[in-house]
Design brief:
The chain is mainly α. The chain is 74% helix and 0% strand. The chain starts with a helix and ends with a helix.
């Protein structure tokens, strides 16, 4: 890095905005995540009318971009390297991979079987269902939900847990995560099986956020805490849940999937007495850099 670049970086870190971000990193992360995603979606989906998947996906990279920007500002290059290492933290017990890749999509598959009249993806044989799931999962890991996790669980959750405790942090994060999707519900017809009217979209956003996103947030917090803060497991879990949900169509079945997420999350709250397997440490930085089993 040249001396001029170093001076520019030092100058930026000395600005009032940089100081405000350092003082309030979590709030800054959410502001930037919403700003990056919402501005893109409002322009591309709302103004340009490009409501296809290819145009939708780039906006979903707002959370990881915000996380990298804030981490680089508050922790520098060493902190950024430690943050990136947790993105590929794969050394966790095999049972967590089985749960994430087999158990979680079973929620969507079960609902799909219960609502066969609303599902279009159970016409084939068992192997075809597995192939469909694996192909969908591979796509969703990087372009359909999994890419969000370095922001939500990788950056925000550890800091929120240390300050608020696991239950309040998970619920708050779930609400903010759910509402982050609002422009997509508004500008993409039928997104998440929402209707087209204002009342129908509002009801869908409410259920999606209060039940689905909060329920998934509780589940992902429990997984995150059990796997040494592995962002990779969170990525796999998010993508797997979305892939399993893809086996149902229609508003009724989609609402049933969201309800299943809420039930699982609530069950984990009762089973862990609200701790969600969280073990606080003396300093937040220690948990961010060296999460434990």
């Amino acid at each position: 890095m040249s001396s001029a670049t170093v001076r520019e970086a030092h100058t930026w870190r000395s600005t009032p905005i940089a100081g405000l971000i350092r003082a309030h990193p979590v709030a800054a992360f959410f502001v930037l995540a919403y700003l990056f995603s919402w501005v893109y979606w409002l322009v591309v989906l709302g103004i340009m009318g490009r409501d296809t998947l290819a145009w939708l996906v780039p906006g979903a990279f707002g959370p990881p971009l915000a996380a990298l920007l804030v981490t680089g500002l508050i922790d520098g290059r060493d902190g950024t390297r430690a943050f990136l290492r947790r993105w590929v933290l794969w050394r966790v017990r095999a049972r967590w991979y089985v749960l994430v890749l087999v158990g979680l999509p079973a929620l969507g598959l079960l609902v799909g079987l219960l609502f066969r009249d609303w599902s279009e993806r159970f016409a084939g044989s068992g192997p075809s269902v597995i192939v469909t799931y694996l192909a969908t999962l591979s796509f969703l890991l990087v372009l359909g939900g999994g890419q969000e996790e370095p922001g939500w669980r990788g950056f925000a959750l550890p800091r929120m847990q240390e300050r608020m405790g696991p239950l309040a942090a998970s619920v708050s994060l779930g609400v903010l995560w759910g509402l982050w999707h609002l422009p997509v519900f508004v500008f993409v017809p039928g997104y998440n099986s929402a209707g087209r009217g204002v009342a129908s979209i509002a009801a869908s956003v409410l259920v999606f956020t209060a039940v689905g996103a909060v329920g998934q947030s509780l589940l992902l917090t429990w997984l995150f805490n059990h796997t040494r803060g592995s962002v990779l497991i969170a990525v796999l879990a998010h993508a797997s849940l979305n892939a399993g949900s893809g086996f149902v169509t229609g508003q009724t079945a989609s609402m049933a999937v969201l309800a299943s997420f809420g039930i699982v999350g609530l069950g984990l709250v009762f089973a862990t007495r609200g701790r969600l397997s969280f073990r606080p440490v003396t300093t937040p930085s220690a948990r961010l850099s060296t999460p434990r089993h």
